[in-house]
Design a protein that fits this description.
About 25% of the residues lie in helices and about 20% in strands. The chain is α/β, with parallel strands linked by helices. The chain has a single domain (about 15-360), classed as Glycosidases (TIM Barrel, Alpha-Beta Barrel), CATH 3.20.20. The strands form 4 sheets. A 9-stranded parallel sheet has the order 5-4-3-2-1-11-8-7-6, with helices on one face. It has a 4-stranded antiparallel sheet with strand order 17-14-12-20, with no helix packed on it. It is globular. It starts with 17 loop residues before the first helix and ends in a 6-residue tail after the last strand.
């Protein structure tokens, strides 16, 4: 894509400290030594490899152009005047970006960026990326990113792999032979994912967009060329799974972006396993699409945690995290300007839990927080928009908005939790383990505390003030933790 860079709108600023951020290297930002408590890091490297966890990789790299962060493509996407003004009414394409880095001097900066991403993903226990193939021409952005990823993987942690996943919506009219040729060429790379028996793992987003005959043609073409396939698609409309049962070896589903979807996730997963298919449960942190004018309610960190619990309850064979970096849907777990490291660090804990079958021991106290920076109902927000963003317009059964501040505590022993706002403080006693404590969203500054007896163990101010007015709504849940300073 080629859009002229624009200044970041003041209302959609990167939530502070840009100068400080640009002094930090990508390696510090994405794979710092303080990324998680030691027990979690140990658990994810303990050799529990039977169950695998992947993250969906979309087309948002660390940098599109290696420009300074105030002038680059992300600055354009964040600005209401970006994308040639096409999304001025919506306030821009996205509301956050990857943590910025200074321009790199190396000619292969894009490969080095991808290597940092791979290291960051591996650091929390991810086995690989599920790469969304939205183009197969050599010059397409998708293929450029994929080639960079595969080149970086050669230099990265051993065993990190890439699942090729066809975006059927984009490639619906692309000739089958052309798709097969592209897959066969890519499959020569040793970091393209395979089953233990050597079969190529082939994913697909929304396979139901193609009829069964088109899929049979593609699979037969690959087989006749000597490439046996383990077909592992991700269904958007899970009701269509039955139509493809004879073709698939495993499956996952998309769209579990609200709590009311979790029971369906468990039901579909159980049915797939009963049919003898490998099942990859999906885990989704949140979903906010300003360019589409809607959001889904994820209840702070609850959707993320409930999705992991569902995967473990039904005995999922694998997990697909949606997503690593889809900023157009606000579903990324990659460390970013609004969510910081919150979902990234939580993912490390739950990946270890999922792989090992037992909750990792909590040997140090950590407080996480999740809250929006404005209420969905605040009348003074979105003043420059000709409309207000609504809950998922695709479904009339959307979960209603909820406006809470959440303190998610990981405690090694009992303590007292406190959330302080402009309207006062509220406290609760918490046992050792994981505790979610919520209060209604209140404008102004927010802080969090863990105390034991007369001693304050942790005092943690939120890096994000809750506002009552804005030109454009920002309904992303923001986050942070006591284990890291805000960046």
């Amino acid at each position: 894509m080629s859009f002229s860079p624009a200044r970041i709108n003041a209302d959609l600023k990167l939530h502070a400290r840009m100068d400080r951020r640009q002094l930090l290297s990508a390696s510090i930002l994405l794979a710092g030594a303080s990324s998680m408590p030691a027990p979690v890091a140990a658990a994810t490297s303990s050799g529990a490899k039977r169950k695998k966890v992947y993250a969906h990789w979309h087309w948002f790299p660390t940098s599109f152009d290696n420009w300074p962060a105030d002038k680059d493509q992300y600055a354009d996407y964040l600005s209401p005047d970006g994308t040639q003004g096409k999304l001025r009414a919506e306030g821009g394409f996205v509301r956050e970006r990857p943590l910025p880095r200074p321009p790199r001097p190396e000619a292969n900066w894009a490969v080095l960026d991808m290597l940092d991403e791979i290291k960051a993903a591996h650091h929390i226990g991810l086995d690989g990326f599920l790469f969304n193939m939205g183009g197969i021409d050599d010059g397409s952005p998708y293929m450029i990113h994929l080639r960079n990823m595969l080149e970086a993987a050669q230099q990265g942690p051993p065993g990190f792999e890439v699942i090729l996943s066809i975006d059927t919506v984009i490639l619906v009219k692309t000739p089958v032979d052309a798709i097969a040729d592209a897959i066969l060429k890519l499959a020569r790379n040793s970091h393209v994912a395979r089953q233990s028996d050597g079969r190529l793992i082939l994913g697909a987003f929304s396979p139901e967009q193609w009829d069964v005959g088109r899929w049979k043609e593609l699979l037969q073409r690959l087989t006749s060329s000597g490439e046996k396939v383990f077909f592992y698609p991700t269904f958007l409309d899970v009701r269509r799974t039955i139509d493809f049962m004879e073709l698939i070896d495993g499956a996952s589903m998309w769209g579990v972006d609200k709590l009311s979807d979790v029971p369906l996730l468990k039901k579909v997963g159980k049915l797939a396993k009963q049919a003898g298919k490998v099942w990859a449960s999906v885990v989704w942190p949140q979903d906010f699409r300003p360019h589409n004018r809607w959001f889904s309610e994820c209840h702070n960190s609850e959707l993320f945690r409930a999705s992991w619990a569902a995967a473990m309850e039904i005995g999922s064979d694998a997990v697909n995290i949606a997503t690593w970096n889809d900023y157009s849907e606000g579903s990324e777990i990659r460390p970013s300007t609004s969510i910081q490291y919150a979902f990234y660090d939580l993912a490390a804990f739950y990946i270890a839990w999922f792989k090992n079958g037992t909750m990792p021991p909590i040997t140090e106290d950590v407080l996480y927080y999740f809250h929006r920076i404005e209420s969905t109902e605040a009348a003074g927000t979105g003043s420059a928009q000709p409309f207000r963003f609504a809950t998922n317009l695709v479904s009339r059964f959307a979960d209603p908005p909820q406006n809470d501040i959440e303190l998610l505590a990981f405690l090694k022993e009992p303590g007292e939790l406190t959330i302080a706002t402009a309207k006062g403080s509220k406290s609760m006693k918490a046992k050792a383990g994981i505790t979610s404590f919520r209060i209604p969203l209140v404008p102004g500054k927010v802080s969090f505390r863990l105390s034991r007896g007369d001693a304050n163990v942790i005092d943690l101010p939120s890096a994000f003030e809750i506002r009552e007015t804005s030109a454009y709504q920002d309904l992303l849940y923001h986050g942070g933790s006591s284990s890291r300073p805000p960046v």
